[in-house]
């Protein structure tokens, strides 16, 4: 098929409203050497308009501008033209044209899925690389267990609530925790249906004390438990955001969690990450807060489901906090019990290999 040729004629007395050079600006000396001309097609198009072309000529080079038109700024929008053509084909096209349109749409969909998948894999790989490098940069003294009292005589003396969340941060949660303070059984049932909060949090709302001061403290602790479990479930790619935690969280709590449980990498982006050791520390704080709320006897079944942790790993972590694990004969679920004197499991000694 031979290319279409256009018959053009030079137009005098016509100026271009705007001329922009794609490869930078033209110096004043070169501007004086340019001869700018406007050409238009000698015959009109089907829409009754004449296309105009701007030519800028110098001694060494000729610049040909893209078509411009004051009537319709979308006349050269290829994507819009294709979309309108597809709509016409879908409504008035033949069977063969509709099949071709369906194939094109499937190809576009596959291309977009492949591009998004590749982008996700690349982001995950970069995040994993930063995570591994950040883990090695943590101090060796970073412990995965909150502060404890080895000489405690009662379970209440082992772990202190102030070491999990300070009073200032606890008070800052009153506004967001008011929904827990004011809730009733009907509202809790609605939250369970809509999965508004973690099951481990909802199951403890029925045990809120009636005393106003104690009820406020428990409501704020449960909201902090919700926040910690939300952070525990975050993926590495989510932590790469500039502000990974929700904006409606109190600033004091957000800063506490970021400084305590995340690590700021030294890469060019300087994004936060959650290394394995700090994630273990976060899990320890979750378990200790549950023990405090449950008077040091906690059912592990809902925590296992909410945190998506295997039973063996969760039981091992609970034992590292000084708890004993008991299996209920009736339900088969496991219960963590904090007892005193505090005893931590000893590290297994490696067997000697005979040569």
UniProtKB/TrEMBL annotation:
The keyword Hydrolase does not apply. One of its GO terms (biological process) is DNA-templated transcription. Pfam families: RNA_pol_I_A49. Keywords: DNA-directed RNA polymerase, Nucleus, Transcription. One of its GO terms (molecular function) is DNA binding. It is found in: Nucleus, Nucleolus. GO terms for cellular component: DNA-directed RNA polymerase complex; nucleolus. Its main location: nucleus. It comes from the Eukaryota. Signal peptide: none annotated. Belongs to the eukaryotic RPA49/POLR1E RNA polymerase subunit family. This is DNA-directed RNA polymerase I subunit RPA49. It comes from Pomacea canaliculata. The lineage of its organism: Eukaryota, Metazoa, Spiralia, Lophotrochozoa, Mollusca.
